[in-house]
Amino acid sequence: MPTHRHAISVEATQRELRLCGFALLNHYLTMHQVIAANVDLPPIEALILIATTTGNIQRALLTGSLPQALRGSQPLPPELVVPISRRAIARVTGLPTETVRRHVDAMVRRGTLLSTSKGVLAPSRLTEGWAAGAVLSLLDSHAACTDQLLALQAIAPQAPRSAGAKRG
């Protein structure tokens, strides 16, 4: 199966730096607004939730062999969900460890996160009514940002290559 790739043009990005930055920052703000509209958390806790969720499922999704039955909205089996430590959350978010610890503890007390002996887990929210609409809104924002960057020639499509082709 061919994969579609895009190349980044350093020259066009430098030429259109303000407009590229504006498109990317607007996309970032839209992502924050979509998430904030559906998960009632202060921004710092939304960031912690995103880092926790991503850390919990990263191993399962990076394998590239996630069975079709697990690609939808059903929760992953517990053996595929990896707890993330407070220190790892601090590292990926850039927040001080003590700040992460304090917020994670508050989120655990409220039931937003679950604590285990190996770290914290974010409960799956994919079956909640808002999840599919939020993902569609995020994809729409991403597509709009990509369209803007294509129009600025900061990124350009490359010819499709077969999935088995070597990356170089």
Description:
With 168 residues, the chain is mainly alpha-helical. It is 54% helix and 10% strand. A hairpin with a 2-residue loop joins strand 3 and strand 4. The radius of gyration is 19 Å and the shape is globular. The mean pLDDT is 89.
Short description:
With 168 residues, the protein is mainly α.
Structural class: mainly alpha
Biggest sheet details? 2 strands, antiparallel
* Element string (H = helix, E = strand): EEHHHHHEEHEE
Low-confidence blocks of residues: none
Radius of gyration: 19 Å
Counting H and I runs of at least 4 residues, what is the number of helices? Answer: 6
Percent of sequence in beta strands: 5-15%
Mean pLDDT: 89
Number of strands: 6
Gap between N and C termini: 18 Å
Q: Any idea what the shape is?
A: globular
User: Share of helix among residues?
Assistant: 40-55%
Give, in spatial order, the strands making up the sheet with the most strands: 1-6
Oligomer class: single chain
